[in-house]
Structure formats: structure tokens, C-alpha cells
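Table S2 (text version). Query chain:
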Amino acid sequence: MDFGMVFRVALRALARNKMRSSLTMLGIVIGVCAVIAMVGVGQGAEQQVQQQIESFGTNTVFVSSGSPSRRPGGAHMGSWSVKTLTVDDMQAIEREIPLVRQCAPGVMSSAQIVFRNQNWFTRVMGTTQSYFTVRNWPLLAGNMFGDDEVRRAQNVVVLGKTVADLLFVAEDPVGQTIRVKNQPFQVIGVLAPKGQSPWGDDQDDRIFAPYTTVQKKLSGQDWVQFLSCSAISREASVAAQPQIEVLLRERHRIRTGSDDDFQVRTQSEVAQMAEETSRVMTMLLGSIASISLLVGGIGIMNIMLVSVTERTREIGIRMAVGATESDIQRQFLVEAVTLSLFGGMIGLVLGAVVSALIASFLGWAVLISVKAVLVAVVFSTLVGIFFGYYPARKAAQLDPIEALRYE
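Corresponding C-alpha cell output:
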């Protein structure tokens, strides 16, 4: 008996009990739907996190003051807790590390920003124009402060989009004067929206000024809290990390065996960590959803065993007219796989619908990949084969004479 004939006979046998066949497929439908939706949510979250990380620049190397380690009997020095990182360190990195293209200093402060009757408390970051090149952060309007403004420590600022929207509801911010810690600053530009960082904070909720202005007029410090450096490539950022560490240890005269008074991190480390976390979560969600596929497979086995019992006499007649054990086994196995495949296809469609509803109503990022679809189809087929084999084998091993006598 050829496969086409076996498939047609399987369809007729399943059609004789439409309700039972539909309920049997329901377990597979729910299982595949759950796998597609849950894996889609996990992969969507992973893609969203990677996009947020890329918004920092894929070649970025961060150098911050302070040490994350703690030696026995010593004090723990966290980020920004020491004052040894300077602009001279930044210039040395640019000069002596060929893998680094450019760097920008970072000096952080906080202040109440006032414009007429509007005010907002936000972070003030002092830096140079290079910072926006490193971060790949374009302007939405106006201009950027340059080397001349930095050298003269001028009172000019560039606003993040969130701050601009809150302070200037119906006016163009560029050219206006705001007050920062009771000092007048002229708004010369507005940055394009950047969105949330991987840590959940709003990157647009801050203003930027020349670092010299922040040091001399707002924070009163002569050191920098961090450096943002851009390597010539993503691979170069990883290779540059140990070179920067060696250079800074020499400049800061740190003895062998002593803790660093700085931290060096690459964007690749953050991306890899986030990718590993997202992959584990996706696998966990997919594993939980796969349990329903196993339950559906058990349902298929149960119904096929019932079907073998009900059709015992039919099996005996087929054997009497020449059907072999292989023919009988293949017949019932095809019926089980057909139930599983049909259920899988319906589950794929339903999973896509559920994923779209999740993205629409909950606002979550959902990504349905071809790999997830293929895995769901293959897994549902294997479920049909695995749980259909025993009933098919049992049907093939029936004694023809005993089967003909069965009432």
C-alpha cells in the first residue's frame, strides 16, 4: 500500500470521529501555540535589549573611577568613589592606544532646571562633542558645543528630548535661556530621542554642557567620573580593554597586587551578558510551554489505543485479505502523525495570533523566528511518532484469527 493511499485511509478513519479527533488535536494546538508565543516573547525581549545596548555604540569602552573589588582588610571603593581619573588619562589613552579612535570625558551632576514657570530636576552631564560621536547620538535641532566652548567653559547646554518636551511645551528650545542652579545657560541644541537604556533609565532625561563648565561652575571638581571611548571595531574594543588597564595602572602608580582605582568595561561584555540572560529565559519559557505538547502527545496515545480496541475486527479483516504487520503499523502511525501535524499547523496560526495580541495589548516586543516555527513543527511531528508508535505496534501484533472473532 503506497503512502498516498495510507494517508487517505487515515483521513477517512479520523473523519469518522470528528469530535474525538478535534479534541485529541487540541492538546497539540495548545502546546504549539504556547511554544510559539512564549519563545516569541523571549526572543522579542532579547532583540529589544540588544537594540538598547547598541544605542550605546557597539565599539564603546567605558572607563570609570573606582574599583569593584574588595581585598581582605581593605575598604571597598565603588564607582566614582575616587578622584584619580583625569582628562590627562583620556588624552594618554587616545595617544598611546592605537585601537582607540577617540574618547570623551564625563562629569555628572544634578540640578533643578527652570524655564519661566516650568521646572524639572534632572542630571547634568559635562562632556565634549566627541561623546555624541562615540554614542552615535545625532542632533534633532540646533548645534553642538565645540572645543571653543569647552576651553572657555561657556554656559551653553544641549537638551535631551525628554527635558525639552517638559520645559518647552509650545516653544522652540533653541536660543532660549534656562537656569541651572541659578545660573543662566543658553540652549543651543536638542538631541534626537534615544529611549531607555538596558538598565531602564531614560537616556533623554538629562542635559549636556561642556565638562569644564560643569567642573568649574556646578560640581567644583577637577577630575572626571568616567570616560567613553570608541574603538576602531567591536573586536578591537575587547583587545583595547587590557591595554587601557595596563596604561592606567602605570599612570596611577598602582603597585603589583594592589586593586585598580578604576574600572574598564566594554559594550561587548554587556551585550554578551544580556544575550546569555535572554537565552536562558527563552529556553525556560519554551521548556514550560513544551510540557503542554507532551500532554497532547499522551492524549494522542490514549485515543489511538482506544481506536485500536474499537477497530480490532477491522484489523483482522485487513490482515485476512493480505495486509502485513508493516501495513497495519504504518496505518495507525500515519493517523497519529496526521493528528499531530494538523494540530501543529493550527497551533502555529493561533500562536501567531496570540503573539500579535500580546504585542498589541501588552506592548511587549514579540519576535516569531523561522527557527522557532521549524522547531515547533518538528517537535509536534516527533510527538506524533513517539506517542503513536506503541498503539501502532500493538495493532500490528494482533492475531488475525483472534481479531476476526472480536465483537
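Notes on Table S2: The first helix runs from residue 3 to 15. The mean pLDDT is 81.
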